[in-house]
From TrEMBL:
A Pfam family it matches: SOUL
Lineage of origin: Eukaryota, Metazoa, Chordata, Craniata, Vertebrata
Region (Disordered): 216-332
Major place of residence: cytoplasm
Subcellular location: Cytoplasm
Keywords recorded for this protein, A-Z: Cytoplasm, Signal
Function as written in the Swiss-Prot or TrEMBL entry: May bind free porphyrinogens that may be present in the cell and thus facilitate removal of these potentially toxic compound. Binds with a high affinity to one molecule of heme or porphyrins. It binds metalloporphyrins, free porphyrins and N-methylprotoporphyrin with similar affinities.
Subunit record text: Monomer.
Biased composition (Low complexity): 234-254
Name of the molecule in the record: Heme-binding protein 1
Organism of derivation: Salmo trutta (Brown trout)
Gene3D superfamilies per UniProt: Regulatory factor, effector binding domain
Compositionally biased region (Polar residues): 293-311
Family recorded in the similarity comment: Belongs to the HEBP family.
Protein backbone atom coordinates (compact mmCIF):
# COMPACT_ATOMS: atom_id res chain seq x y z
CA UNK A 1 0.00 0.00 0.00
CA UNK A 2 2.80 2.38 0.94
CA UNK A 3 4.72 1.53 -2.22
CA UNK A 4 1.67 2.45 -4.31
CA UNK A 5 1.23 5.84 -2.67
CA UNK A 6 4.90 6.83 -2.76
CA UNK A 7 5.20 7.28 -6.56
CA UNK A 8 2.04 9.38 -6.59
CA UNK A 9 3.41 11.59 -3.84
CA UNK A 10 6.64 12.11 -5.76
CA UNK A 11 4.72 13.14 -8.88
CA UNK A 12 2.59 15.58 -6.87
CA UNK A 13 5.66 17.22 -5.31
CA UNK A 14 7.31 17.45 -8.72
CA UNK A 15 4.26 19.17 -10.16
CA UNK A 16 4.16 21.65 -7.28
CA UNK A 17 7.84 22.51 -7.77
CA UNK A 18 7.30 22.87 -11.50
CA UNK A 19 4.34 25.23 -11.07
CA UNK A 20 6.27 27.28 -8.53
CA UNK A 21 9.27 27.56 -10.84
CA UNK A 22 7.14 28.67 -13.79
CA UNK A 23 5.16 31.18 -11.78
CA UNK A 24 7.58 34.04 -12.55
CA UNK A 25 7.62 33.59 -16.34
CA UNK A 26 4.64 34.56 -18.46
CA UNK A 27 3.57 35.78 -21.90
CA UNK A 28 4.86 39.14 -23.05
CA UNK A 29 1.36 40.58 -23.55
CA UNK A 30 1.14 40.96 -19.77
CA UNK A 31 3.70 43.78 -19.89
CA UNK A 32 3.56 47.12 -21.69
CA UNK A 33 7.35 47.39 -22.21
CA UNK A 34 8.31 43.74 -22.76
CA UNK A 35 7.09 43.27 -26.32
CA UNK A 36 9.93 41.80 -28.40
CA UNK A 37 10.02 38.35 -26.79
CA UNK A 38 7.30 35.75 -26.32
CA UNK A 39 7.92 35.32 -22.59
CA UNK A 40 8.86 37.85 -19.93
CA UNK A 41 9.61 37.95 -16.25
CA UNK A 42 6.40 38.61 -14.34
CA UNK A 43 6.14 40.64 -11.17
CA UNK A 44 3.68 42.08 -8.68
CA UNK A 45 3.66 45.85 -8.27
CA UNK A 46 3.82 46.63 -4.55
CA UNK A 47 3.75 50.43 -4.77
CA UNK A 48 4.90 53.31 -6.93
CA UNK A 49 6.23 56.78 -6.16
CA UNK A 50 7.36 59.64 -8.37
CA UNK A 51 10.95 58.36 -8.25
CA UNK A 52 10.78 54.56 -8.14
CA UNK A 53 8.65 51.41 -8.04
CA UNK A 54 8.67 48.54 -5.58
CA UNK A 55 8.13 45.15 -7.23
CA UNK A 56 7.90 41.62 -5.89
CA UNK A 57 9.43 38.80 -7.95
CA UNK A 58 8.82 35.09 -7.46
CA UNK A 59 11.68 32.54 -7.56
CA UNK A 60 13.01 31.91 -11.08
CA UNK A 61 15.93 30.14 -12.75
CA UNK A 62 18.45 31.84 -15.03
CA UNK A 63 21.49 30.84 -17.07
CA UNK A 64 24.47 33.08 -16.27
CA UNK A 65 28.09 33.78 -17.12
CA UNK A 66 30.78 36.16 -15.83
CA UNK A 67 32.96 38.54 -17.79
CA UNK A 68 35.83 40.69 -16.57
CA UNK A 69 36.15 44.12 -18.15
CA UNK A 70 36.92 47.75 -17.42
CA UNK A 71 33.55 48.86 -18.77
CA UNK A 72 30.14 47.29 -18.37
CA UNK A 73 29.39 47.48 -22.09
CA UNK A 74 32.48 45.49 -23.04
CA UNK A 75 31.87 42.79 -20.44
CA UNK A 76 28.18 42.55 -21.33
CA UNK A 77 28.97 42.07 -25.02
CA UNK A 78 31.33 39.15 -24.31
CA UNK A 79 28.87 37.50 -21.92
CA UNK A 80 25.91 38.04 -24.23
CA UNK A 81 27.62 36.12 -27.03
CA UNK A 82 28.14 33.07 -24.80
CA UNK A 83 24.55 33.02 -23.57
CA UNK A 84 23.12 33.51 -27.04
CA UNK A 85 25.10 30.51 -28.31
CA UNK A 86 23.63 28.45 -25.46
CA UNK A 87 19.99 29.19 -26.32
CA UNK A 88 20.64 28.63 -30.05
CA UNK A 89 21.97 25.07 -29.66
CA UNK A 90 25.24 25.00 -27.70
CA UNK A 91 23.82 22.63 -25.07
CA UNK A 92 23.87 18.89 -24.50
CA UNK A 93 20.54 18.38 -26.26
CA UNK A 94 21.16 20.77 -29.14
CA UNK A 95 17.90 22.49 -28.19
CA UNK A 96 16.98 25.93 -29.44
CA UNK A 97 15.10 28.16 -27.03
CA UNK A 98 13.24 31.40 -27.52
CA UNK A 99 14.86 34.58 -26.29
CA UNK A 100 13.22 35.95 -23.15
CA UNK A 101 13.32 39.28 -21.38
CA UNK A 102 14.70 40.98 -19.49
CA UNK A 103 18.46 40.50 -19.56
CA UNK A 104 20.12 41.12 -16.19
CA UNK A 105 23.60 42.54 -15.64
CA UNK A 106 24.83 42.31 -12.08
CA UNK A 107 27.08 45.33 -11.47
CA UNK A 108 29.29 45.58 -8.38
CA UNK A 109 29.11 48.84 -6.47
CA UNK A 110 32.77 49.09 -5.46
CA UNK A 111 34.60 49.51 -8.77
CA UNK A 112 37.64 51.60 -9.66
CA UNK A 113 38.37 53.08 -13.05
CA UNK A 114 41.89 51.62 -13.19
CA UNK A 115 40.75 48.12 -12.19
CA UNK A 116 38.52 45.70 -14.13
CA UNK A 117 35.29 44.48 -12.57
CA UNK A 118 33.38 41.21 -12.80
CA UNK A 119 30.03 41.63 -14.56
CA UNK A 120 27.49 38.80 -14.45
CA UNK A 121 25.03 38.54 -17.34
CA UNK A 122 21.92 36.34 -17.02
CA UNK A 123 19.23 35.12 -19.43
CA UNK A 124 15.82 34.13 -18.08
CA UNK A 125 15.09 30.49 -18.94
CA UNK A 126 11.76 29.92 -20.75
CA UNK A 127 8.90 28.50 -18.71
CA UNK A 128 9.25 25.09 -20.39
CA UNK A 129 12.88 24.81 -19.23
CA UNK A 130 12.62 26.32 -15.76
CA UNK A 131 12.56 22.85 -14.17
CA UNK A 132 14.92 20.92 -16.47
CA UNK A 133 17.13 23.19 -18.57
CA UNK A 134 19.65 21.59 -20.97
CA UNK A 135 23.23 21.48 -19.74
CA UNK A 136 25.55 24.04 -21.37
CA UNK A 137 28.51 22.80 -23.39
CA UNK A 138 30.51 25.88 -22.36
CA UNK A 139 31.90 25.44 -18.86
CA UNK A 140 31.77 29.20 -18.31
CA UNK A 141 27.98 29.04 -18.11
CA UNK A 142 26.05 28.08 -14.99
CA UNK A 143 22.51 28.28 -13.60
CA UNK A 144 21.38 30.88 -11.07
CA UNK A 145 18.43 30.44 -8.72
CA UNK A 146 16.86 33.86 -8.22
CA UNK A 147 15.03 33.87 -4.88
CA UNK A 148 11.78 35.57 -4.02
CA UNK A 149 12.61 39.24 -3.53
CA UNK A 150 11.40 42.82 -3.48
CA UNK A 151 13.34 45.30 -5.59
CA UNK A 152 13.44 49.06 -5.97
CA UNK A 153 13.16 49.94 -9.66
CA UNK A 154 13.99 53.09 -11.60
CA UNK A 155 13.16 53.12 -15.34
CA UNK A 156 14.78 55.12 -18.13
CA UNK A 157 14.92 55.15 -21.92
CA UNK A 158 17.71 55.12 -24.48
CA UNK A 159 20.64 52.74 -24.35
CA UNK A 160 21.96 50.96 -21.28
CA UNK A 161 25.55 52.18 -21.25
CA UNK A 162 28.06 52.39 -18.42
CA UNK A 163 27.47 56.12 -17.98
CA UNK A 164 23.67 56.03 -18.11
CA UNK A 165 23.45 52.97 -15.88
CA UNK A 166 25.68 54.57 -13.25
CA UNK A 167 23.76 57.84 -13.45
CA UNK A 168 20.35 56.29 -12.83
CA UNK A 169 21.77 54.00 -10.17
CA UNK A 170 23.08 57.09 -8.37
CA UNK A 171 19.72 58.85 -8.67
CA UNK A 172 17.91 55.82 -7.29
CA UNK A 173 20.26 55.37 -4.33
CA UNK A 174 20.01 59.07 -3.55
CA UNK A 175 16.24 58.75 -3.29
CA UNK A 176 16.45 55.54 -1.26
CA UNK A 177 18.77 57.20 1.23
CA UNK A 178 16.40 60.14 1.48
CA UNK A 179 13.42 57.94 2.33
CA UNK A 180 15.57 55.82 4.69
CA UNK A 181 15.09 52.57 2.76
CA UNK A 182 17.25 49.51 3.45
CA UNK A 183 18.73 47.78 0.41
CA UNK A 184 21.74 45.72 -0.67
CA UNK A 185 24.68 48.12 -1.09
CA UNK A 186 27.14 45.65 -2.64
CA UNK A 187 25.64 45.43 -6.14
CA UNK A 188 22.74 46.44 -8.35
CA UNK A 189 21.20 45.16 -11.56
CA UNK A 190 21.20 46.80 -14.95
CA UNK A 191 18.09 45.51 -16.72
CA UNK A 192 17.48 45.61 -20.48
CA UNK A 193 14.31 44.65 -22.33
CA UNK A 194 15.09 45.45 -25.97
CA UNK A 195 17.27 43.95 -28.68
CA UNK A 196 20.14 45.99 -30.17
CA UNK A 197 18.10 46.38 -33.36
CA UNK A 198 15.42 48.46 -31.65
CA UNK A 199 16.24 52.16 -31.93
CA UNK A 200 13.21 53.96 -30.48
CA UNK A 201 11.11 53.61 -27.33
CA UNK A 202 13.69 51.54 -25.53
CA UNK A 203 13.14 50.55 -21.90
CA UNK A 204 15.84 50.00 -19.30
CA UNK A 205 15.81 49.73 -15.52
CA UNK A 206 18.01 49.84 -12.44
CA UNK A 207 17.28 47.41 -9.61
CA UNK A 208 18.34 47.44 -5.99
CA UNK A 209 17.30 44.47 -3.87
CA UNK A 210 15.31 45.56 -0.82
CA UNK A 211 16.29 44.34 2.62
CA UNK A 212 13.54 44.04 5.17
CA UNK A 213 10.22 45.74 4.56
CA UNK A 214 10.11 47.89 1.44
CA UNK A 215 9.56 51.61 1.89
CA UNK A 216 6.72 53.09 -0.14
CA UNK A 217 6.20 56.41 1.67
CA UNK A 218 8.40 59.37 2.47
CA UNK A 219 8.97 59.72 6.23
CA UNK A 220 10.64 63.11 5.78
CA UNK A 221 7.80 64.73 3.85
CA UNK A 222 5.77 66.91 6.22
CA UNK A 223 2.06 66.58 6.56
CA UNK A 224 0.25 69.04 4.25
CA UNK A 225 -0.34 72.24 6.25
CA UNK A 226 -3.87 72.91 7.42
CA UNK A 227 -4.89 76.53 7.75
CA UNK A 228 -7.86 76.81 10.12
CA UNK A 229 -10.65 79.23 9.32
CA UNK A 230 -10.11 82.44 11.33
CA UNK A 231 -12.80 83.20 13.94
CA UNK A 232 -15.41 85.78 13.03
CA UNK A 233 -14.62 89.21 14.49
CA UNK A 234 -17.50 91.72 14.22
CA UNK A 235 -15.16 94.73 14.38
CA UNK A 236 -12.69 93.35 11.91
CA UNK A 237 -11.99 95.57 8.90
CA UNK A 238 -13.17 93.81 5.71
CA UNK A 239 -11.39 93.89 2.42
CA UNK A 240 -11.38 97.34 0.86
CA UNK A 241 -12.82 96.06 -2.39
CA UNK A 242 -15.87 94.76 -0.53
CA UNK A 243 -16.41 97.56 2.02
CA UNK A 244 -20.13 98.42 2.05
CA UNK A 245 -21.42 101.98 2.20
CA UNK A 246 -21.94 102.61 5.92
CA UNK A 247 -24.44 105.42 5.27
CA UNK A 248 -27.03 103.02 3.93
CA UNK A 249 -27.27 99.29 3.35
CA UNK A 250 -29.55 98.67 0.36
CA UNK A 251 -32.01 95.85 0.30
CA UNK A 252 -31.11 93.52 -2.54
CA UNK A 253 -34.77 92.78 -3.24
CA UNK A 254 -35.44 96.50 -4.06
CA UNK A 255 -32.66 96.91 -6.61
CA UNK A 256 -34.03 96.80 -10.14
CA UNK A 257 -32.19 95.14 -13.00
CA UNK A 258 -32.02 98.43 -14.91
CA UNK A 259 -30.23 100.11 -12.03
CA UNK A 260 -27.66 97.28 -11.85
CA UNK A 261 -27.06 97.41 -15.58
CA UNK A 262 -26.76 101.23 -15.77
CA UNK A 263 -24.74 101.89 -12.66
CA UNK A 264 -23.23 99.16 -10.46
CA UNK A 265 -22.55 101.71 -7.74
CA UNK A 266 -24.39 100.94 -4.53
CA UNK A 267 -25.60 104.50 -3.84
CA UNK A 268 -28.98 105.56 -2.43
CA UNK A 269 -29.62 107.73 -5.49
CA UNK A 270 -29.67 104.63 -7.64
CA UNK A 271 -32.35 102.88 -5.54
CA UNK A 272 -35.92 103.33 -6.90
CA UNK A 273 -37.92 105.47 -4.47
CA UNK A 274 -40.97 104.14 -2.71
CA UNK A 275 -44.38 105.40 -3.86
CA UNK A 276 -44.73 107.62 -0.78
CA UNK A 277 -41.34 109.19 -1.27
CA UNK A 278 -41.26 109.39 -5.06
CA UNK A 279 -39.92 112.85 -5.90
CA UNK A 280 -40.10 114.48 -9.22
CA UNK A 281 -37.53 112.88 -11.42
CA UNK A 282 -35.02 115.35 -12.77
CA UNK A 283 -31.99 114.65 -14.97
CA UNK A 284 -29.72 115.24 -11.98
CA UNK A 285 -31.27 112.26 -10.17
CA UNK A 286 -30.47 109.80 -12.96
CA UNK A 287 -27.27 107.88 -13.23
CA UNK A 288 -24.30 109.90 -14.37
CA UNK A 289 -22.96 108.49 -17.61
CA UNK A 290 -19.32 107.46 -17.51
CA UNK A 291 -19.14 107.51 -13.72
CA UNK A 292 -16.80 104.84 -12.45
CA UNK A 293 -18.24 102.29 -10.06
CA UNK A 294 -17.76 103.15 -6.44
CA UNK A 295 -14.86 101.50 -4.64
CA UNK A 296 -17.38 100.48 -2.03
CA UNK A 297 -19.59 98.65 -4.54
CA UNK A 298 -20.25 95.01 -3.85
CA UNK A 299 -20.81 94.35 -7.60
CA UNK A 300 -17.88 93.31 -9.76
CA UNK A 301 -16.64 95.65 -12.49
CA UNK A 302 -16.89 94.00 -15.87
CA UNK A 303 -15.26 95.30 -19.01
CA UNK A 304 -17.50 94.62 -21.95
CA UNK A 305 -19.12 96.13 -25.03
CA UNK A 306 -21.60 98.02 -22.89
CA UNK A 307 -18.85 100.00 -21.17
CA UNK A 308 -17.16 100.75 -24.47
CA UNK A 309 -20.43 102.02 -25.96
CA UNK A 310 -21.05 104.35 -23.04
CA UNK A 311 -17.53 105.73 -23.16
CA UNK A 312 -17.73 106.22 -26.91
CA UNK A 313 -21.05 108.05 -26.54
CA UNK A 314 -19.61 110.24 -23.80
CA UNK A 315 -16.83 111.44 -26.06
CA UNK A 316 -19.43 112.60 -28.58
CA UNK A 317 -21.47 114.49 -25.93
CA UNK A 318 -21.07 118.31 -26.11
CA UNK A 319 -18.91 119.78 -23.37
CA UNK A 320 -21.64 122.13 -22.17
CA UNK A 321 -23.97 119.25 -21.39
CA UNK A 322 -22.43 117.54 -18.36
CA UNK A 323 -25.43 115.24 -17.80
CA UNK A 324 -26.71 113.02 -20.59
CA UNK A 325 -30.22 111.77 -20.95
CA UNK A 326 -30.11 107.94 -20.91
CA UNK A 327 -32.74 107.86 -23.66
CA UNK A 328 -30.38 109.71 -26.01
CA UNK A 329 -27.68 107.06 -25.80
CA UNK A 330 -27.46 104.59 -28.61
CA UNK A 331 -27.14 101.34 -26.68
CA UNK A 332 -28.51 99.12 -29.39
Amino acid sequence: MTSCLFPGLVVLVALMVSVGAEGGVGPSNNSSFCSESKECLEYELVCKTDEYEVRHYSPTRWVSTDAEAYFMGVGAAVAFRRLFQYITGDNNGGLQMEMTAPVLVRIPEETRIWEPAIYTLSFLLPAAYQERPPTPTDDKLYFTEMPSMDVYVRSYGGWMLSVTSRLHAHLLTKELVRVQADYNHTYHYGVGYDSPLKLLNRHNEVWYVAEGEAVCSDPQEPTPPHTPTPPHTPNATPNATHTPNTSHTPNATHISSSTIADSPSDLPANRPPTPSQAPEVTPSQGPVVGESPSANSSDSQVDGPWNNTVEASLEDTPSDNSVADPTDLNLA
